[in-house]
Design brief:
The chain is of the alpha/beta class and 377 residues long. The protein is built from eleven helices and 13 strands.
Length: 377
């Protein structure tokens, strides 16, 4: 049954990875739906508990929230978001309190974003067994206190290494040979680590095909959290001024510091966005390494309301290229040398496995690369 859900997700995500924001044809886009609403009974059926960073981070939180809003609005359901106290310094208690507030506020489904939610979510799920929890970016069946998977929790994992690979390959084929990667979470976020490792693999593969050498700056410095900062902007400005041409901005609101650095560089730098199509947020964005977080949230919420929760509860959905759940936004990218036809061929190879992409970043990142010099700072 979980394979059937993955197929349904794939059909919907094929569209979601190509477009976002306002839509034509009378159907609302996420930007058309307000972030706050007033429920007539003071209860909110569909809830979202944010990851660290801002709700409108133009990335992970916002992409997930957009999916929650779209489902709730289309089905005439009340909705609300909850942000754990203390921002990037939120504790497990802060996250649990946000989930508890959502459940006690009438939530039938609570979507939680980010791997840091695990301990709080396990506690909340046991306390509120009648509530369904969707755990975005978790790669294992979340256990309860008895060690058994919690049946009211459905986890969703993405193969970010594939999205990173596509982006790294594309920018090198476009002609960039001085690359950068700046990730959030201090290197502790598996999703960001997979994005970065895939980016390195794709860049090296494209460089080998072209017979060129590529240099890459690679850092979690000033990315211990996911927020914008003057320190991060200064570091990335230094990269651009020293010759870096394009930087993969992998970490929520860090994007704002990196695009500011790119725009202010002597020779305007380029940026690769993450999670959602970020081309509309800065002219510096050449493409984005995307995953269908919003669509996954919509489909999982739908399973709850359609009475089909048993198909996903207590398990993990692992989604990647084979499900059309990761990719690059060919309709909005600004690349010229790397064509859509080139991309389609590349994507098919990743999709059918003829182009393998390794996910084991802990073992593989610091290997000797044939056509890439990696400087980890």
């Amino acid at each position: 049954m979980k394979k059937i859900l993955a197929m349904l997700l794939a059909m919907a995500m094929a569209f979601s990875l190509a477009a976002c924001g306002s839509q034509s044809g009378g159907k609302k886009g996420a930007d058309d739906i307000p972030d706050t609403m007033n429920s007539s009974d003071g209860k909110y059926e569909v809830a979202f508990v944010t990851d660290v960073g801002q709700l409108k981070d133009k990335s992970f939180n916002q992409g997930t929230w957009d999916g929650v809003k779209l489902y709730a609005d289309e089905h005439k359901l009340s909705y609300k978001y909850y942000q754990p106290a203390n921002g990037d310094a939120a504790t497990d208690d802060d996250r649990y309190n946000a989930m508890k507030q959502a459940a006690e506020g009438g939530a039938k489904v609570v979507v939680c974003a980010g791997f840091l939610q695990a301990a709080a979510l396990a506690k909340a799920a046991e306390e509120f067994p009648e509530v369904h929890f969707v755990f975005i970016d978790n790669n294992y069946a979340l256990p309860g206190s008895n060690g058994e998977p919690l049946k009211n929790v459905a986890s969703v994992e993405f193969q970010e290494e594939q999205a990173g690979y596509l982006a790294g390959y594309a920018v090198v084929k476009e002609g960039y040979v001085k690359l950068g990667f700046s990730g959030g979470g201090g290197g502790s976020n598996p999703a960001c680590c997979r994005y970065g490792y895939g980016y390195v693999q794709g860049a090296n593969a494209a460089a080998a095909e072209l017979g060129v050498q590529v240099d890459m700056m690679y850092s979690w410095q000033y990315g211990g959290n996911y927020g914008a900062s003057a320190e991060l902007q200064s570091m990335i400005s230094g990269w651009y001024n020293e010759g870096t041409e394009v930087v993969f901005a992998c970490g929520g609101s860090m994007f704002n510091s990196i695009t500011a650095a790119a725009a202010g560089a002597a020779n305007e730098g380029a940026v690769v966005g993450v999670d959602t199509d970020q081309s509309g947020d800065s002219d510096t964005v050449v493409t984005s390494a995307m995953k269908g977080i919003g669509e996954a949230a919509q489909q999982a919420i739908g399973k709850s309301y359609d009475g089909k929760w048993d198909e996903i509860g207590g398990g993990v959905l692992k989604l990647g290229a084979k499900d059309n759940a990761v990719g690059l936004p060919t309709a909005t990218w600004s690349m010229e040398k790397f064509t859509k036809e080139d991309y389609d061929k590349l994507f098919k190879g990743v999709q059918d496995g003829s182009i393998p992409v390794d996910a084991d970043y802990e073992a593989g990142l610091e290997q000797a690369w044939s056509n890439l010099t990696l400087k980890i700072v």
